[in-house]
Amino acid sequence: MQRITIDPITRLEGHGKIEIFLNDDGSVANTYFQIPELRGFERFCVGRPIEEMAVITGRICGVCPEAHHMAAAKAADAVYHVEIPRPAKLLRELLYSAFYVTDHTTHFYALGGPDFVMGPDAPVAERNILGVIHKVGLEIAGKVLQARKAGHTVIEMIGGRKVHPCTSIPGGLSKGITKEQRDEIEKMGRWAIEFAQFSLKLFGDIVLGNKAYVDLILGDIYTHRTYSIGTVDENNKVNFYDGKVSVVDPEGKRLGKYAASEYTDWIAEHVEPWTYLKFPYLKKVGWKGFVDGKDSGVYFATPLSRLNSADGMATPLAQAEYEKFYKTLGGKPVHQRLTIHWARLIELLYAAERWVELVTDPEITSDNFRTIPTEKPMEGVGIVEAPRGTLTHHYWTDERGIVTKANLIVGTTNNYAPITMSIKKAADSFIKKGVVVSEGILNRVEMAFRAYDPCFGCATHSLPGQMPLQVTIRDARGEVVQVLRQFCD
Amino acid sequence: MSGKPKFAMYWAAACGGCEIAVLNTNEKILDVDANFDVVFWPVAMDAKYKDVEAMEDKSILLTLFNGAIRNDENEHIAHLLRKKSQILVAFGACATQGGIPGLANLSNTKSMIDTAFHTISTDNPDGITPQTTYKMPEGDITIPTIYPAVKSLNQVVPVDYFMPGCPPESHQIAAVIDLVIQVLQGKAQLPLTGAVIGAGNSSVCEECTRTRNEKKIKQFTRIQDFKPDPNLCLLEQGILCCGSATRSGCGAVCPKAAVPCVGCYGATEDSPDQGARLLNAVASVIDSRDPAEIEKILDGIPDPAGMFYRFGMAGSLLRASKAAWKE
């Protein structure tokens, strides 16, 4: 059987490969999405001191190390049964909010955005951040850089380093912030709110104002009706740093909420022998295969699923956008996967508002940023919302606090099954008998994948947009029917 | 193509932090764009492996290779990029010395896979583990073979320059970008092949602002168990800080943030093995000549292998424990 191999998947963090097998008539027989790597953190964290998890697991992902840092820190606090002082919670969540601003900005402007700002069929040379800049102006590039810079400045001030934070320790933080830093953080936060509003307006003008995009977004090709999960606070509003995980069925009915220590009652991981990554699913529903529906345990964990699983946003401007979002799309829950791009921008606004809320709390400059644990270490779970999905860290230790066992369910991992389904559905829909498999067609298959923001799509400004590509299409006898090429010799 | 020199950046067994560190040079990235054609950078643009294969040998002027060599795909791409590149830089701790993934060398691959596929939340009653070739109804599909031990880049291909750090700090990356552009303009020369770039020549202690006195350690304490004096050397206070055995260049950011150096910039200029150098440092500050007392003091270091070789296991003289080579 003939096949199209996309290797490696590009514009994401990590490695992946797609194999598309074609029937004799040129339609898709099957599509496989394989993850070819495994580094083994769950094994090599064993033997390491628990306080190092916040630093070691940051290296699972250098795009969202803040997420691993926080999940590991919360797990270590749980291992020691220590409640960190309120100023420490404020500082950690402040760092986390600023991180969300940088990360969601990067994804929208450099990864997801170009498909809409330039269009899915735009020439490859233009369908990237440079094309976006040429179309909407250099001033925008400056704003994007400033948003990233502001966020990473906060991360460094509170977390100690720009990429891999190091200041969370069992019991709190190793340091606090000065009044001068606080003032600067507030100034940047208020600017970030404006930037988020600007980004939502841009999305409204360029995407929602374009009927062709709206049809694409609302269409069936990129739609999957699955369960949604996301962390909510005690008022059932979206919270990235702490709360309980809310699970909602495809019709919007809440199945329940679980605390960190209860995750094994809810989430299990299915195994296939052809990939190094596992497929999480809802235990209470069961694994029924790569299928949609209320009877399938497949769920997704993204900005859209967070909005679906919550009752609203905890800050006023984001809440107004939340209401507008569901009003426009005909109610909750929403399942069209391309709307994740929109949901991401609503979260961007919430993150910026939350940033300002936290930095203006009078306790943010307190020097009561840590307490010394006194209990014997044993076992603990920490859960945060990574930008790309619910992140769970679970450690067992001996009486010295040395890790004896670890279990990690990482953001994008939650989405492995739905991404696989989205890629397959897009391939089935676009690659058909009689259809010329153009570059634009393959890009639409990638758009299915890209909406989930599978970790990082680098917001580089040096994207040349010249994707060297060769697609060979053969008939049932193996005879070459067509060879499409661009930018390759 | 525009006639600008070609640039590539690749990640093997990596985390993406090096890519973010490059991005965090902010406006400097525009200089990269102005001076180079980016021809391969999977995180950022859509060139595929077969496009690199189709390039002429040595047609890429500069390749920054981050990530460790964990499996045969990583090694294959290392050889491929070596062939296609004039200058190959081992970028970041993983490429220069194995990095955090190198901690896997303290156990073995089978144990790693078994652990991952039998965690408490994993539903695997049949004990399935990944197959490097799997027969689907439509055809065979493959995934890479994981090696018994993680390797650094220079353990599989010759490397021109080494840029340490996890990740390399952005101000160092910016300085290296400036240097390369100056070289392109004929205004500067590249350092000698084999050099460490984007880092200093001494240890992190040189950059640390904490006061240092003579050290006499009677006890090692872990960071969560006491609140250290913010102005005094951490090692002096009994916190195991790797700064004395770690190359300078980062600005001692971690001790500044009141946590110990974890050693991510790798061995100092004159040391063939970072862990050995740190072992030396620890031995020399212990304030005792009584073997029983020394044992007790060393009990305060609960994970010597992991703490001394945190980022540099694969690139060290030891490379891996015996367990890595056992089935």
CATH class of the largest domain in chain A: Mainly Alpha
CATH superfamily of the largest domain in chain A: Cytochrome-c3 Hydrogenase, chain B
Q: What structural class results from the helix and strand content of chain A? A: alpha+beta
- Separate helix tally of chain A: 14
Largest interface: A-B, 110 and 96 residues
- Count structural domains of chain A: 2
- Determine the fraction of residues in helical runs of chain B and give it as a percent range: 25-40%
List strands and helices in order, with pairings.
The complex is a heterodimer of chains A (about 500) and B (about 325).
Chain A: E1 2-6, E2 17-22, E3 28-34, H1 41-44, H2 53-56, H3 65-79, H4 86-117, H5 129-136, H6 138-159, E4 168-169, E5 172-173, H7 179-208, H8 211-218, E6 227-232, E7 244-248, E8 254-258, H9 263-266, E9 267-270, E10 279-282, E11 299-300, H10 303-309, H11 316-329, H12 340-359, E12 379-386, E13 389-397, E14 403-409, H13 416-430, H14 439-450, E15 469-474, E16 480-486
Parallel strand pairs in A: 6-11
Antiparallel strand pairs in A: 1-2, 2-3, 4-5, 6-7, 7-8, 9-10, 12-13, 13-14, 15-16
Helix pairs in contact in A: 4-5, 4-6, 4-7, 4-12, 6-7, 7-12, 10-12, 11-12, 13-14
Chain B: E1 6-11, H1 17-23, H2 28-35, E2 37-40, H3 49-54, E3 60-66, E4 69-71, H4 72-84, E5 85-91, H5 92-97, H6 109-116, E6 122-123, E7 133-136, E8 139-142, E9 146-151, E10 161-163, H7 170-184, H8 204-207, H9 253-256, H10 274-285, H11 291-298, H12 304-308
Parallel strand pairs in B: 1-2, 1-3, 3-5, 5-10
Antiparallel strand pairs in B: 4-9, 7-8
Helix pairs in contact in B: 2-7
What does this structure look like?
The complex is a heterodimer of chains A (489) and B (327). Chain A has helices at 41-44, 53-56, 65-79, 86-117, 129-136, 138-159, 179-208, 211-218, 263-266, 303-309, 316-329, 340-359, 416-430, 439-450, and strands spanning 2-6, 17-22, 28-34, 168-169, 172-173, 227-232, 244-248, 254-258, 267-270, 279-282, 299-300, 379-386, 389-397, 403-409, 469-474, 480-486. By secondary structure, chain A is an alpha+beta fold. Chain A has 2 domains: 2-37 and 417-463, no CATH class; 41-372 and 407-414, Cytochrome-c3 Hydrogenase, chain B (Orthogonal Bundle). In chain A, the strands form 6 sheets. A 4-stranded mixed beta sheet of chain A has the order 8-7-6-11, with helices on one face. In chain A, strand 15 and strand 16 (480-486) form a beta hairpin. In chain A, helix 4 runs antiparallel to helix 12 (340-359). Chain A is globular. Chain B is an alpha/beta fold. Chain B has 3 domains: 6-98 and 152-184, Rossmann fold (3-Layer(aba) Sandwich), CATH 3.40.50; 109-147, no CATH class; 204-324, no CATH class. In chain B, 29% of the residues lie in helices and 14% in strands. Chain B contains 12 helices and 10 strands. Chain B has helices at 17-23, 28-35, 49-54, 72-84, 92-97, 109-116, 170-184, 204-207, 253-256, 274-285, 291-298, 304-308; strands spanning 6-11, 37-40, 60-66, 69-71, 85-91, 122-123, 133-136, 139-142, 146-151, 161-163. In chain B, the strands form 3 sheets. Chain B has a 5-stranded parallel beta sheet. In chain B, strands 4-9 form a two-stranded antiparallel sheet. In chain B, helix 2 (28-35) runs parallel beside helix 7. Chain B is globular. Chain B starts with 5 loop residues before the first strand and ends in a 19-residue tail after the last helix. The mean pLDDT of chain B is 94. Strand 9 (267-270) of chain A pairs parallel with strand 6 of chain B.
